[in-house]
Amino acid sequence: MNRDRKYWNEEMETILADKLHDLHNKKFLSHMDYVFSKSEFYKEKFKAAGISRGDIQSVDDIDKLPFTEKQELRDSQLTKAPLGKHMACESGDIVRFYSSSGTTGVPTYIGLTQNDIDGWIEIGCRYGWSCGFRPDDIIAMAVGAGGYFAAAGLQGALEHLGATVVPIGPGATERILAAFQNLKANAMFGTPSYAVYFLDWLKKKEIDPKSLGCKKIIVGGEPGGSDPYIRKKVQEGFGCKFSEGMGLGEVAVAVWSECYKQDGMHFAGQGLVHVEIIDPETLKPIKDLKTGTNGELVYSSLFRECMPLIRYRTRDQVIINMDPCECGRTGMRIKCVGRTDDMLLILGVNVYPAAIRDVIGTFQPKVSGMLEIQLDKPGPKVEPPLKIKVEHAKGVGDLKALKKELEAGIREKLVFRADVELVPDGSLPRYEYKGKLVRKLYEE
Fold it and tell me: By C-alpha distance, which of 436, 437, 361, 376 is closest to 406?
């Protein structure tokens, strides 16, 4: 395989907007035929909404359809085994199941046909190639299918593009280290939180991170990969390239991926996933997308057989970049700023924890970049001042002055009042999987 090829799928990754619209129109209408005939879940849902197949004549009619919420899928799975009314294929066509722990302790399941897996692999190859993985890479996987649906799907894609994969999973840092030292791994896939955790862990062990020979770290699973201070810390610490991607296990292994410019994540799901950006308050699609547009991602599958999804609300809040990229990939790029579920409302101002982390990061090296937002009562409404613990660097000097600087910076950038408590470097928890920026001090 030619490692110097510019794209995994040049036709799709550089497709022009009008051709993409025509392609998605054709794919969407075909998928609607499948959904209306095969999915008991959607037949009931659309009937309740007063919608028939004849009401959907093009992909431009998609906003006539109701949104799909995650809780609906959980509720459906309780109706009958194995996947509830959401299963739209014969049980004998299912070749793989994934599960994750639900919030109530009841696992959430995803089923895949071979066609579903093939679609995951195609998107995963576009994703992996864009982020910089190549056939001669040996990749330590610091995520596992048990807690991260996309992990095994991404593994299959990386193997398909020719790379060697070392599946390890979270909570096994000694084995990650061994993959670099003994198997000569030169790349890693994990969460942003794990990349920072692994770097700090190595330093505590007095192991030079650069001695591992890790040249590429690709992250996903949570916001943070685009944080300039996390990126700078990891890239300088390992001497590597640090890129991020994003997907959703219910939809596709990876839908967005950075290129070498590291200036937003490119859409990688052409012909396989249809994306809408909606206003999170009005829930109406934003038709005229421009650079700087802020909205919520909504996905519709164009290929899924076992568990098709139509207008699935992700709660992921993104900022759009419509400017051309010198890599030649077309369409929009995004930066994920957080989730609606995590948003705080402070005197009428919407505040995402990731945005607070971004502001705190500008004060490095006076601070470590680690913080903990503390809530006394359930949100999203929070009465100011918002309590925030922030790690200060060793030997920083006047802590009272630093506290005032941090509080003033937050007030200036995010327009709310904070009460910052400075704590010593290393006193806040590090996470081997997904990081937690918010700590609830109340009993749920």
Answer: 361
What is the tens place of the pLDDT at every residue in 303-345?
Answer: 999 999 999 999 999 999 999 999 999 989 999 988 877 888 8
Query: Which of 329, 298, 291 is CA-nearest to residue 316?
Result: 298
Range with the largest mean pLDDT of 231-235, 248-252, 271-275, 365-369: 271-275
Two tokens, residue 23: 């392609």
* 96 Cβ contact partners less than 8 Å away, ≥ 6 residues apart: 111, 112, 117
Q: Which residues neighbour 249 within 8 Å (Cβ) at sequence distance 6 or greater? A: 98, 100, 110, 148, 149, 150, 153
Q: Render 201-218 in DSSP notation, one character per residue.
A: HHHHTT--GGGG---EEE
- Indicate the pTM of the whole model: 0.86
Q: What domains are defined for the chain?
A: 1-339 (3.40.50.12780), 344-440 (3.30.300.30)
Q: Specify the pairing of strand 241-248 against strand 294-301.
A: unpaired
**CB atoms inside a 10 Å sphere around CB 188:** 28
Separate counts of helices (H) and strands (E) for the chain? 11, 19
The first and second tokens of residue 71, run together, are: 């809780």
The C-alpha angle 44, 87, 97, rounded to 5 degrees, equals 155
Taking the C-alpha atoms of residue 336 and residue 112, their distance in angstroms, rounded to an integer, is 27
Query: What's the Cα-to-Cα distance from 359 to each of 108, 192, 303, 356, 431, rounded to whole Å?
Result: 35, 17, 40, 5, 21
**Contact yes or no for 138/184 (Cβ under 8 A):** yes
φ, ψ of residue 165 in degrees (nearest 5): -115, 135
d(CA 418, CA 106): 38
Which letter does DSSP use for residue 285 in this model?
Answer: B
C-alpha distance from residue 92 to each of 89, 96, 112, 114, 226 (Å): 8, 11, 11, 11, 42
